[in-house]
Design goal:
The complex is a heterodimer of chains A (about 400) and B (about 100). Chain A is an alpha+beta fold. Chain A is about 50% helix and about 20% strand. Chain A has two domains: about 200 residues, no CATH class; about 130 residues, no CATH class. Chain A is elongated and about 95 Å long. In chain A, strands 1, 2, 4, 5, 6, 7, 8, 9, 10, 12 and 13 form an eleven-stranded mixed β-sheet that branches. Chain A is built from 14 helices and 13 strands. The relative contact order of chain A is 0.18. Chain B has about 100 residues and is mostly helical. The longest helix of chain B has about 45 residues. Chain B is built from four helices and no strands. Chain B has two domains: about 50 residues; about 40 residues, no CATH class. The chains are: A alpha+beta (about 400), B mainly alpha (about 100). At the A-B interface, α1, α2, β1, β5 and α5 of A face α1, α2 and α3 of B.
Chain lengths: ~400, ~100
Amino acid sequence: MKKHLKILEFALSSLLRRKYKNLSIVLVFSMVTFVIASILFLTHSFKKEALSVLEGAPQLIVQRLIAGRHALIPVSYIDEIKKMPGVGKVSPRYWGYYYDQLTGANYTIIGLDRAWSVNGRVMEGTALAPEDIGYCNIGFGVSDRRFLQVGDDLFLQDTKGGLYHFKVKGIFNMKSQLLTNDLVLITKKDFINLFQFPPSMATDLVVEVYNPSEVTNIAKKIKERLPDTRPITHDEILRTYNSLFNWRSGLMLTMFAGAVLAFVILAWDKATGLSAEERQEIGILKAIGWETSDVLALKFWEGASLSIISYLTGIIAAYFHVFFFGASIFAPALKGWSVLFPDFRLVPDIDIYQCFVLFMVTVLPYTVATIVPSWKAAVTDPDSVMRG
Amino acid sequence: MKKYIVFIGIVVIEIVIFLGLLLYGIDKVSEKKAELNTLRQLAHELRLTDFSIWTEARYTRHPSQADWFSAFQDYPSSVEHFPAGSIIPPPELILKEGGS
């Protein structure tokens, strides 16, 4: 133990002799760890939150497809689906999009046809009831863009160019932003009037299935009986979000691959050779009586001390970045063209296994990459090593 | 002061900070459980299927409800023009079964 502490002391002195070079390695190493850890933390946390919240999503949704595109579904399909054994309540959903020319934002408009309530506070003001004609509930993003408060009027243009005004009855709070940021909740009657929606049609249907394990079977039966429909099961919704927030997909993979590549270059540079100065140092140590194992221990401590410090710095910085600053560095890439983008504060739910894997793929290869070329130099004759 | 003492000190401080953050995370997760329950209920009551993150196109606003040709919604093989489209991968179904 004492011997190793002395070797560590010597290793640190040796690192400090080339402090600018080693400082830049710590900086690059920390940044690479920071990017990789940020991606892992962000995607894991997003995924956990999505899977937890969307557990409440409908069991089965039935859309109608015309020419491969989502089209309005006739309400008469409800009776057809209801006839199937195992099917409970079937109800229509009325929703659509509204492009707001004033702000350049897209809103999701929902036509409410039933009363709703939740335990816990999700809004300022009161929840919309199906009989509240001329009133609305809006998401935080909508109120922010349109500078609206409870009691103000929200103006929306109908299909004929006329203006509809809705009194804001409630505004969803920031805590529910991930679900409600762009929502405008109006009554079904207002929805039909605003969009001149055909009364015998709905956007899609929500199907309740008595036995949750039968959902896939019911979906198959619906597809057989109504071939122009596309059933979307609850599991499919969860699977979509599982793959959406997977670090192995899309842009996240691109960023992740870039960071990993930068790290590989760093480790490769280290592994492919020692500087003349480093070779000379090893030669001198061997000449004054250091064993090969001592030289390897020295190099191990050099590599380990640099990589451990960098790893811990990177991972701590990533934690602050993702959970305290809302992944602000990634925000421009994540935001895209969205005018309404939620200011999300994710739950700091991190996977220790991921931290462990990150440790194994950064600290370990870097340390090994430091030892290998030194071992080659340490087993060579000191005289020839010193002469280069 | 010996350099190794400073080094070990820095490592210990960083480990303590990291462990502190982990404990903070555990505390926040249990604190947010009630909030997540409320959101789950909200999704159930309003029959919501998607997160309101990317609002620029219908297939980025509602990835779980998008039709199979959503990435080429203007015309076949049209260029994907929304940045979020590069973050969102194609549905698993299409990757595995070619959408059939």
